[in-house]
C-alpha cells in the first residue's frame, strides 16, 4: 500500500478509517447501498425490457412473415412467378402463398369475429412456426375440399368448440338475392387448435386450406400475397431493395416486412427502454449525490488533518485528489456491488418470479391482459457496461464540489480552534 501515490493512499485510508462522527459513517454506507440498489434495479429493469422485446419479436415472427409481397388494391395473380423470382434472392429461404380475409365464426349460441388465413400447410410450416404450436390436431389436417379449420386456443374456448365440431364461417362479401345481399356462409370442421401465447393470435386467427379460402372469398386462382422467410429477419430492411430488383418485372405489388407491420409497437419498446433508463438513472444519481453530504462532513472531520498536510507541503490539488479518491471509492464499491446483485437477479429471474408468485398466490401477468404471461429476461453486457460507466461518472461528479472546498481551506483558520 505504501507504494501507492500519496493522494490515493490517504484517500483509501480515509475510506476505511472509523470516524468519530458515526453519522458520517452512516451516510457513507447509505450512499454505497443506495448506489448498489439503484444500479441493480437499473440492470434488472433493462434486462426484463430486453427480454420482453425479444420474446415478443420471437412470438410475432412465429406467426407473422419476415416479409411479404402483396397486390396493390387487388389480389396477386401471377403469384407462382413471384415465388420463383423471390427465391432467386439469396437471403430468401422459403415462400408460401396465402389468402387473407375477415369472417364471423359461430358455434351454438356464440359468435366471434376472426381473421381467416388460407394457407398451404406444407409450405406454411417453412415460413412460420405454427406447426410447432399445435395443442390439438395437426396443421396437415387442413386438406383441400374438406373444409377443415384450425383455431387459436382462446377463439376455440370462446366458441366452446372442440375437435370434430362443425363451426359456421360467414364472410362479408355476400351474394345477391331477391331479399338483398346475404353473407356467404360455409360450415367448417374443427381439425386443430394452436396456442401462440399471444392473445392477438390465439383469440383472433383462424386457418383454412388456401383452396377452400379462395372458393369462400371468390379469389379464383389468385392469392392475397406471398409470405417469405429470410435467413435473418433482422436484415429485412436490407433485403427489401434486393427483392424489389428481383421482382422488377412484376406489376401492382408492394413489399412489407415484419417491422413495417408493427412500427408503433417497436417504436414504443425503444422509447420505453430509454425512458426507463433515464428514470432509473435518476435513482442512481440521487444515491450518488449522497456522496456530497458524506464528503462535506468528512472534510469537516478532517479539518486539522487537511491543515497539517498543507503545512507539510501538500498542494491544494493533492488535497482535492484525496477527497475525490474517497468519494470515487464509495461510488466504485457501490457500483460493483450493484452490478453483482443485478446480474445475479437478472440471470435467475425465471426462477425468482415464479417462486414469489407461488409464495403469495398471485400472478403478475394475467393472460387476459398481457401478451406474455411470464417475466422474461435478457441480460446484455453492453447495458451493464453503460450502467457502470454512468454510475461511476455520477459518483465522480458528486465528489467535485466537496473536494474543491477542502482544497480551498485555509490551514491557519482550520487550526485556530484545534
Explain what you see.
The protein is an alpha+beta fold and 418 residues long. It has 2 domains: 6-59 and 265-416, no CATH class; 65-260, no CATH class. 53% of the residues lie in helices and 20% in strands. Strands 2-3-8-5-7-6 form a 6-stranded mixed β-barrel, surrounded by 4 helices. Helix 2 (22-63) runs antiparallel to helix 9 (263-288). The longest helix is centred in the N-terminal third of the chain and has 42 residues, at 22-63. The relative contact order is 0.19. The mean pLDDT is 81.
Please describe the topology of this protein.
Blueprint: H1 6-16, H2 22-63, E1 67-71, H3 79-86, E2 92-107, E3 110-119, H4 121-127, E4 134-137, E5 148-152, H5 153-159, E6 166-177, E7 180-194, H6 199-202, E8 205-209, H7 210-216, E9 225-230, H8 236-246, E10 253-257, H9 263-288, H10 290-301, H11 303-311, H12 316-347, H13 349-360, H14 381-407, H15 411-416
Parallel strand pairs: 3-8, 5-7
Antiparallel strand pairs: 1-9, 1-10, 2-3, 2-6, 2-9, 4-7, 5-8, 6-7
Amino acid at each position: 500500500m505504501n507504494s501507492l501515490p500519496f493522494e490515493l493512499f490517504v484517500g483509501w485510508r480515509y475510506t476505511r478509517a472509523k470516524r468519530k462522527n458515526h453519522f458520517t459513517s452512516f451516510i457513507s454506507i447509505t450512499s454505497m447501498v443506495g448506489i448498489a440498489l439503484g444500479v441493480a434495479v437499473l440492470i434488472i429493469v433493462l434486462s426484463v425490457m430486453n427480454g420482453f422485446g425479444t420474446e415478443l419479436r420471437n412470438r410475432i415472427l412465429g406467426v407473422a412473415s419476415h416479409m411479404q409481397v402483396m397486390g396493390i388494391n387487388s389480389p396477386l395473380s401471377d403469384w407462382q412467378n413471384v415465388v420463383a423470382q423471390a427465391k432467386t434472392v439469396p437471403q430468401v429461404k422459403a415462400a408460401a402463398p396465402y389468402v387473407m380475409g375477415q369472417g364471423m365464426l359461430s358455434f351454438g349460441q356464440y359468435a366471434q369475429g376472426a381473421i381467416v388465413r388460407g394457407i398451404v400447410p406444407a409450405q406454411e410450416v417453412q415460413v412460420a412456426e405454427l406447426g410447432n404450436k399445435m395443442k390439438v390436431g395437426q396443421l396437415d389436417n387442413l386438406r383441400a375440399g374438406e373444409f377443415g379449420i384450425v383455431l387459436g386456443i382462446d377463439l376455440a374456448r370462446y366458441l366452446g368448440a372442440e375437435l370434430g365440431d362443425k363451426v359456421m364461417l360467414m364472410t362479408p362479401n355476400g351474394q345477391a338475392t331477391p331479399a338483398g345481399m346475404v353473407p356467404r356462409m360455409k360450415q367448417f370442421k374443427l381439425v386443430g387448435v394452436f396456442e401462440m401465447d399471444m392473445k392477438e393470435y390465439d383469440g383472433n386467427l383462424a386457418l383454412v386450406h388456401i383452396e377452400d379460402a379462395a372458393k369462400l372469398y371468390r379469389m379464383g386462382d389468385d392469392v392475397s400475397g406471398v409470405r417469405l422467410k429470410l435467413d435473418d429477419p433482422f436484415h429485412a430492411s436490407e433485403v427489401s431493395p434486393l427483392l424489389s430488383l428481383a421482382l422488377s418485372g412484376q406489376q401492382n405489388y408492394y413489399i412489407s416486412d415484419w417491422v413495417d407491420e408493427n412500427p408503433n409497437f417497436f417504436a414504443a419498446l425503444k422509447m420505453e427502454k430509454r425512458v426507463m433508463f433515464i428514470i432509473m438513472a435518476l435513482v442512481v444519481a440521487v444515491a450518488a449525490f449522497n456522496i456530497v453530504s458524506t464528503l462535506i462532513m468528512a472534510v469537516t472531520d478532517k479539518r486539522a488533518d487537511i491543515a497539517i498536510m498543507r503545512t507539510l507541503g501538500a498542494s491544494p490539488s493533492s488535497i482535492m485528489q484525496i477527497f475525490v479518491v474517497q468519494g470515487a471509492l464509495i461510488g466504485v464499491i457501490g457500483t460493483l456491488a450493484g452490478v453483482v446483485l443485478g446480474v445475479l437477479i437478472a440471470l435467475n429471474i425465471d426462477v425468482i418470479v415464479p417462486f414469489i408468485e407461488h409464495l403469495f398466490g398471485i400472478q403478475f401477468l394475467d393472460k387476459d391482459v398481457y401478451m406474455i404471461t411470464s417475466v422474461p429476461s435478457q441480460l446484455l453486457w453492453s447495458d451493464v457496461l453503460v450502467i457502470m460507466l454512468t454510475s461511476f461518472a455520477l459518483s465522480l461528479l458528486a465528489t467535485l464540489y466537496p473536494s474543491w472546498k477542502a482544497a480551498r481551506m485555509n490551514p491557519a483558520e482550520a487550526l485556530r480552534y484545534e
